[in-house]
């Protein structure tokens, strides 16, 4: 199949239509792991972001829109030890010879923006948009995927951690999701964590051969990340690994206690998850994940976040504490599907205009109705009454406004309810808007 439409059919009036035999599969398809999102699903995506904004903006968070492409060093500087940066990043040399990367995540970009613009602290920012990772595409895992998130820079207060986690929780509530579990851990202070990493290295190192080859490699680069392995063969050694809680110093333990009591005070349930870690060296103290209980356990992370220090510094700014999270749109919507909440909206308009006099009346009436604040659609191409009424019914409109030759001559229009059992009536054109308003409200 070539996918090319060789000859287009000419129609009266110069309109052209693809031939009926036009092959369904086109020559060009989206790249693996990348998707077109069409309405009404795209409408759901936009509402997802709207709901997120409606939760975080009243808490003082302002939208930040970093570019999708940055100097690749923004990401390598802070994430070299992670797969996301070392193996999955779309990095390339641009025509000016710069090494750039499509962002694999947005925390580093937000920190870079902070260093560049130095907004006053606390800087409370939220973001939404696509990231890029060269991963093996599968359900809930794509090469271009969207996240929403928040980052707060400049505050070291555990109550801010509570606020940030609560925003994530309230967002899931606003979507209508119920089967979400908040998993919580503390990575301790850098010194606690360093002792823990040593203990992990010793634990896994003593029984190296019992690990999978992938985990042996991870062990070299980042022993913490071995705990992330979902491979069955690693499970036994992970189960007996030392726990971070036993390595927490006093400062981190107090921070963690305040965090937990704050969540209790807000009525947000959580589960301690001693093996929950994040790979970057910059993460410390609070770390958390939202797990979707309806999803397959290997892919059930809806989102996660935590506290980090040193990220801003690594990008050339002053030492600045930070905390934030990123929530994946795709998996969250899969969880919504599983729970039957936050579905794709039904698309419909208020009014559908049927005009069998040539189309100019429909042009005038739709314009009028739209300017009055109501939505309106119409049929095109001078189609028959039957075809236009079919389109009207398909549109989901509440009423049809019909203009034929008689109505045009009399300066009237027929208003026909398309749902319910209301009667159709004939109204004069100057009365049309008032009448529609009465029918629709
Ligand atoms: P991360 O930035 O890796 O902490 O991921 C945060 C969230 O983004 C995850 O919990 C997922 O919901 C989502 N996510 C990460 N990578 C992908 C991907 N390749 N495809 C779809 N969603 C993703």
Structural classification = alpha+beta
The helical percent reads 25-40%
Rg, rounded, reads 28 Å
* Main sheet record: 8 strands, mixed
Q: What is the number of E strands?
A: 18
- Distinct bound molecules: adenosine monophosphate
Identify low-pLDDT runs: 1-17
Distance between the termini: 52 Å
Q: How big a fraction of the residues is strand?
A: 15-25%
Shape: elongated
Largest sheet strand order: 3-7-8-13-12-11-9-10
The pLDDT mean sits at: 92
List the keywords.
16 helices, 36% helix, alpha+beta, five-stranded mixed sheet, binds adenosine monophosphate, 21% strand, disordered N terminus, 441 residues, elongated
Structure overview:
The chain has 441 residues and is an alpha+beta fold. Helices cover 36% and strands 21% of the residues. The protein contains 16 helices and 18 strands. The chain has helices at 41-56, 72-79, 83-86, 107-117, 158-175, 190-206, 213-221, 223-226, 235-239, 250-265, 311-314, 329-339, 360-371, 385-394, 405-410, 432-440, and strands spanning 9-10, 16-17, 62-63, 69-71, 91-93, 99-102, 123-132, 144-153, 180-186, 271-272, 283-292, 301-308, 322-328, 351-355, 376-378, 399-403, 412-417, 425-428. Strands 3-7-8-13-12-11-9-10 form an 8-stranded mixed β-sheet, with helices on both faces. Strand 14, helix 13 (360-371) and strand 15 form a beta-alpha-beta unit. The protein is elongated. Mean pLDDT is 92; it is low at 1-17. It binds adenosine monophosphate (AMP). The site of adenosine monophosphate has 16 residues, from strand 8, strand 12, strand 13 and helix 12.
